[in-house]
Design goal:
Layout: H1 12-39, H2 41-52
């Protein structure tokens, strides 16, 4: 059999290390985002925006015949 086909490429370990580091950084960012939402920052902003929204659905306009 040909051993060259199954050998890992040079830098393959480096690539895996970079991907693992990027994954950890993304996870930390998402955890911080979730913590800030739990604190209520996003809830306060949503509550302020909800006051500006009209209640229910808008009334339907007149129907146009083609």
């Amino acid at each position: 059999m040909n051993d060259k086909a199954n050998r890992p490429k040079k830098g393959d370990g480096e690539r895996k290390d970079r991907l693992a580091e990027a994954l950890r950084a993304n996870l930390q960012k998402r955890k911080a985002q979730a913590r800030s939402r739990r604190v209520g920052d996003a809830d306060d902003q949503r509550a302020r925006n909800a006051d500006d929204q009209p209640e229910g659905l808008p009334a339907a306009g007149k129907m146009h015949k083609d």
